[in-house]
Amino acid sequence: MAAPEERPEETREETPAGLPECPSAEGSGLLPPELRAWMVLLAATGAVEQRLRAVVKERLDVSHDEFLILCLLAEHPREGLRMTRVAELLGRPKTRLTYQVACLQHAGLVVRRSACGDKRGVEVALTEKARGLLREASGTLAETAAGALAHVMGPEQRAAVLGLVPGLHEADPA
């Protein structure tokens, strides 16, 4: 049996076992920098979504898509948003959004009302129940998101994203 080949210590962080390396924003492949950056963002987004799904279901008892609606509404605490704007921001068809909002309304997490001055427009806003659930779960959700980003991104990408995700420097990449 041959002895394992000795390798000099690598100076960069290793990719966790079984995972391909995240696309590099500074790679020398065929893609221009804008597309490489987009690929890094897609990998990061996918990792966060994958890890958040179970936590969101456990802590809030909603689907990931419903969670995204709650997050959008959380950024507009009192006034709510028009349904057309929510659909636009999430890139979802209005019919799918109507179903998801109905599920959230049935769970007591959102209210729907006519838009002020426009009988055809519908606004949706968080209920106090939803605000409380989001407050209670926010720490766990933030740690989950930061951990997923740290797991997928290399040190250079983490440094670039640090301004958007303040807890990223403390996150455990495991």
UniProtKB/TrEMBL annotation:
InterPro entries: HTH_MarR-typ (IPR000835), MarR/SlyA-like (IPR039422), WH-like_DNA-bd_sf (IPR036388), WH_DNA-bd_sf (IPR036390). Residues 1-26 are annotated as: Disordered. Residues 34-170 form the HTH marR-type domain. Residues 1-15 have a biased composition (Basic and acidic residues). One of its GO terms (molecular function) is DNA-binding transcription factor activity. One of its GO terms (biological process) is response to stress. Gene3D superfamilies: Winged helix-like DNA-binding domain superfamily/Winged helix DNA-binding domain. This is MarR family transcriptional regulator. It comes from Streptomyces antibioticus. The lineage of its organism: Bacteria, Bacillati, Actinomycetota, Actinomycetes, Kitasatosporales.
